[in-house]
Amino acid sequence: MNYILGEPIGEIVRQTDKAWRFKDGTANKLPVGAKIYETDTEITNVIVDEKEIPYLKMLEG
């Protein structure tokens, strides 16, 4: 898939496997410090160790 990497929109600041502990910036698989970027598509990109990983946006509430 072709896309244009946009501005940073967030960063993972904590990890947890407990649903009740999830807040903005929380992940269960991505490492703390991973940067989240928007693109010109419905895909969000996360950069981990200089590698781009595409993610579908999952918004709640």
The proportion of strand residues reads over 45%
Terminus-to-terminus distance: 29 Å
Tell me the Rg in angstroms. Answer: 12 Å
Give a short account of the largest sheet: 4 strands, antiparallel
Strand order, sheet with most strands: 1-4-5-6
Total beta strand runs: 6
Query: Which bin fits the share of residues in helices?
Result: under 10%
Based on CA inertia axes, which overall geometry fits? globular
Structural write-up:
With 61 residues, this protein is an all-beta fold. It has one domain (5-56). 0% of the residues lie in helices and 46% in strands. The chain is built from no helices and six strands. The strands form two sheets. It has a four-stranded antiparallel sheet, with no helix packed on it. A hairpin with a 2-residue loop joins strand 5 and strand 6 (51-56). The mean pLDDT is 89.
Keywords:
61 residues, mainly beta, four-stranded antiparallel β-sheet, two-stranded parallel ribbon
Secondary structure topology:
Elements: E1 5-11, E2 14-15, E3 26-27, E4 35-39, E5 43-48, E6 51-56
Parallel strand pairs: 2-3
Antiparallel strand pairs: 1-4, 4-5, 5-6
